[in-house]
Amino acid sequence: MGRAPCCDKANVKRGPWSPEEDTALRNYVQKHGTGGNWIALPHKAGLKRCGKSCRLRWLNYLRPDIKHGGFTEEEDYIICTLHQNIGSRWSVIASHLPGRTDNDVKNYWNTKLKKKLAVLANSAHVTTNNYTQLSTSTSPVPGIKSRNHVNCFSTPIDKSLDGASSIETGSGCNVESQKLYSDSNQFPVLGLKEISDFGVRANSYGVSSSSFPVDNSCISLSGNGYGEADTFLVDMGYGSAYDLLHGYSSQEKILEVAPGLANFSYSKLLASAETKPHGLHQSITL
DNA sequence: AAGAACCGCAACCGCTCTGGG
DNA sequence: CCCCAGAGCGGTTGCGGTTCT
């Protein structure tokens, strides 16, 4: 026996909403609110619709603060970053995008962004950028062991950044790991730095992303327009920071995971630079 | 010009979560 | 605790519009 339906499907209208229905629902909600009871709402509003359908219509289309239209580059960036870190938790991702609904974000990801990233991944000369979660067996940095999805990308940090600015660095730079690094004197590793050294504030989403702040002692961007940058974020892909916190927190261990860091040089990387939408920094794809 | 293929998005479905009794 | 109704969520579908052949 299946689950009981949430409403009498024989007596409710389905399919696209008419302008009259939209008006009735909008007027009712604006006047009375939802009352915390969507099941009873359609009857009160004089609608022959399922409560769930009303809720969806309101949340995804009729709400006054809904933003319609194309997604910006900045929104792309946020979606990609969060999707990398937390997966398809659309409601959480949407909560970071004012005016966007989970349905919007989900549709956008499935119809456009996913394909866009696939094209980017295929066109990358060396590897993909860290927007993707490819289960690739090829490693972006020579010698890095293939893990669940090890992709690497760097972000030159502009030292003129406002100190109050926030860069998503994942838990690789969160307070807990920074403390661990500094307490155990691990920072000499390859120019690994504390994010706060650069005058920017790490913004941890409480996820296992993995951006390492480093100085230019291990990175050279000469010849590709970034030679003047002396601080960078290097993102090793989801999971690496977690490892640093749980057993890979020594230089030997780091090199075990990523031996390529020992002679890591960006100078050999292609200058497939793109301007990041928020204007805080730029990134290159390794 | 017409049919096929593709695309984007609104809406639905069914499962999980949550809170009140 | 347990149960259940309702809310919330993510995956999927269906359809209208657009582009391609």
Fraction of residues in H or I helices:
25-40%
Our estimate of the beta-strand percent is 5-15%
Shape: elongated
- Distance separating the two termini: 54 Å
Radius of gyration: 24 Å
Number of strands: 7
Helix segment count?
A: 9
Low-confidence stretches: 123-286
Order of helices and strands: HHHHHHEEHEEEHHEE
Walk me through what this model shows:
With 286 residues, the chain is α+β, with helices and mostly antiparallel strands. It contains nine helices and seven strands; from the N terminus they run ααααααββαβββααββ. A five-stranded antiparallel β-sheet has the order 4-5-1-7-6, with no helix packed on it. A two-stranded parallel sheet has the order 2-3. The protein is elongated. Residues 123-286 have low confidence and may be disordered. The chain binds a DNA duplex (21 and 21 nucleotides) through α3 and α6.
Chain-wise SSE layout:
Elements: H1 19-32, H2 41-44, H3 51-62, H4 73-86, H5 90-95, H6 102-123, E1 153-156, E2 166-167, H7 175-183, E3 201-202, E4 211-215, E5 231-235, H8 240-245, H9 251-257, E6 274-275, E7 282-285
Parallel strand pairs: 2-3
Antiparallel strand pairs: 1-5, 1-7, 4-5, 6-7
The chain binds a DNA duplex (21 and 21 nucleotides) through residues 2-3, 6, 14-17, 36-39, 50-53, 55-57, 59-61, 88-91, 102-104, 106-108, 110-112.
Provide a quick synopsis of the model.
This protein is an alpha+beta fold and 286 residues long. It has helices at 19-32, 41-44, 51-62, 73-86, 90-95, 102-123, 175-183, 240-245, 251-257; strands at residues 153-156, 166-167, 201-202, 211-215, 231-235, 274-275, 282-285.
